[in-house]
## 1
Amino acid sequence: MTSAPLAARLTHVAGPLFFPVTAYGADGALDLDAYRAHVGQGVAAGAAAVFACCGTGEFHALTPEEFGACVTAAVEETAGRVPVVAGAGYGTALAVQYARIAEEAGADGLLAMPPYLVVADQEGLLRHYTALAGATSLETIVYQRDNAVFTPETVIELARVDGIAGLKDGYGDLELMQRIISAVRTEEPDRDFLYFNGLPTAELTGLAYRGIGVTLYSSAVFCFVPEIALAFHRALTTGDDTTVNRLLDGFYRPLVELRGKGRGYAVSLVKAGVRLGGLDVGEVRPPLSEPQPAHIKELAEIIERGRAVLRSDEGSESPDEGPSEDPDGAGAGTGTGTRGGAA
């Protein structure tokens, strides 16, 4: 854990947000050595933050003891170079328990998952996240998706809660997000509130979210082809829409279409990609299942097509001129999340 506030460290980021998979051995038990290697490789590659034991990290499949061990390993491996945000979820009592474990492990913040199973009203959701934010000293990012979808009025109240730093959107209603951003900006103009695109394979909707001022996003792709994720992040940040569209057409759209061929592929396909890269992180735990062999082969082909796009872009640069410069000087490192709604 570092002394700098999480929100401040995430406002200006120079790379994607990294959501590592959780590594298991052949016997299904945690493989902390492989997990440390995975986290370390991601940080070395240029991750702006590590979100440990979240959706891609199979939070749902971990015991509290395993969760604590993974968060501790992530904190130790990052060694303060980037913030570590840990998942927390289920009902209020269990979410608070996970939050306190994360705090003891040295995490810098929490990603608050939706409450387990129940469909609550707005008042109940507000009470839940207020209680979670008040249970530790960690800054909390609230995850909007599934059974936790908020009205603009509720997000205004969340933004007023000490310890709640932002909203991650995994629901995908851009009109609702625009109304939320506008409402918080209007009612809390001095509030530095962060917004994240948290849709699966968020790069596919990066241009759309950038249009409403949301530039922070989850990158599961960074787990298994960081060079592609970094190139896309750099292009999106600098407004290089040509490169963005080439990667969307040649890599991200085919990847999303493959992801749609199996339930749970948002996690299991990512884990297969990590294994294709040479790091054995094991298989997913039940109730998830492994991708079909044909789909893993297809994933390898999509990865190669993505790398071919990068090689083509590199070959198109003049050796005398080098990479083109952003005329406004907005290079990597200026990818900001919307703060109070400002782009």
## 2
Amino acid sequence: MSDAQTPPRTPSTAPRPDTTHFGYRDVPVAEKQKLVAEVFSSVAGKYDLMNDLMSLGIHRIWKRYFVGTAQVRRGDRVLDLAGGTGDIALLLRDRVGDSGSIVLGDINGAMLRVGRDRMTDQGKVGGFEYVQMNAEKLPFPDASFDLVTIAFGLRNVTDKDAALREMFRVLKPGGQARVLEFSEVKADWFKPIYDFHSFNVLPRLGTLFAGDRDSYQYLAESIRKHPPQDELKAMMQAAGFARCDYRNLSAGIVAIHTGYKA
């Protein structure tokens, strides 16, 4: 798809109550989780390589900033949702120290295994728990965590409002939730370049290095369907979070959203 064919960003709400978006396709709500699972099972082995190729390595800077500006202290208990290959959990480990703990959660078992194996290979075995879970229904009691993070995972959740409510529920009073996600590019001059990269370069990289064009086409489409900055901020407020705010990085390619439990 060329940039001339790229549809404009549309509202993230589903067109009918019984359907939701899977990229630009409308699919039954019950099917989205399965389709997303197939995408991430397909790309799990090449996930880190593809992130470097797609972002020219800039995703590492985004993640470091995301963790470096988080409200977290030694001894804290952290939940990292959509933990994937463990990038965020690994960066958080030094922040929480030996007295803290991190639960690395992901709905996709293949991604979770990649993260666990990666930690083991690096000798990082203490202080981590690995739990396969659905962000829409977290298997933890109320007020369990000092910090909840989700990086590049919220856009793949079928019911984002439910996931945000669950993040709020499991936070301790005074705790912080942070969302790192692709968002809406704000610089008009950059939008055509970004669209060309998304719909022409990414699928070709997927074909070349991962043998999977469709998954990276979905990636580009899912970004356009994700709620833009102010809409996601309003969703966090509706979920109960206080002092909600966001910071754009790289002209809005990604944004960090923050909210607190009063």
## 3
Amino acid sequence: MTLHRIDYRDGDALGAVLLVAIAIGLPFLVADRFYLNLLFLILLYGGLASAWNLLGGYAGQFSLGHTAFFGIGAYSSTLLYTMAGVSPWLGALGGMAISMALAFLISYPVFRLRGVFFAMATIAVGETVRIVLLWYRRIADIPYGISIDYKPGLARMIFSEPRSYALMAGIFLLVVVAVCYAVSRSRAGYYLQALRDNEDAAQAVGIDLRRYKLIAFLISAAFTSLGGTLMAQYVLYIEPSTVFNTTISIDLALMSILGGIGTLWGPLLGAAVTMPLQEFLRDWLGSAGAGAHLVVYGALLVVIVMLLPQGVVGAWKDWRAKRRRYGGQHARG
């Protein structure tokens, strides 16, 4: 993939410093285990949502099947580690390779679809992978749930200190955002945005639709798979109903939309809103009945999306634009 020249803009350096401070600095400022756990989830899902945003936000391909890649990453590294003693770092690479191969195989049929039909096709892919796993585990004698022995060590990607997991998630976020930045500010990124805004017009001027969609799809699938490995090593337990849950795909899309779809900061801001909301509501309403927190969570998100239809970043940009216009009119007056 050729990115050509990257279009640097004013404020990029300040944004990079701020992001590094959040991803690397915050874990050292938080001491409470509950908040370290929350920080890990925010940073991890911020990276996962950024990976989804590259395909769904910049390229306009609204995927709801990313749970397939998340589950592949979790299962690949876990099975290799528990059955063959392969380090999860290497298992993560295997999962990324499998996820990219799957993305490549399904790209031709799904890219022929648009809008809601594309979303439905990706949901079907995620469910198909889960069903195939359930069928295959009976043949290969794989247990439904797989536990990972708690043996702390860097080579095993298992840590006794929760801060280490938060730092690992922070580094994951930085890498994903850096790649998204490089792609979005290059010629490939502008082509992707052209495809999102008007696919027919982009094709008419000679943009290779499948090539640039595929670039975004492969990168997005690889990072989502890596995130699945990180989550598996954090909870030390996986099963099909959790890592192949369609809710994961929906959450990634929702975080990007809430924060600002097609922006660099949007997915992280979306994760910073939705993850604490989920955790606090689960903690406060857990005794009120199973699933009560989900009802309140959904209602609050509907209100937020109605108030901020363009997301947090979009609302901020609109406010700044109105302020500049008002300032200009006031100066002329």
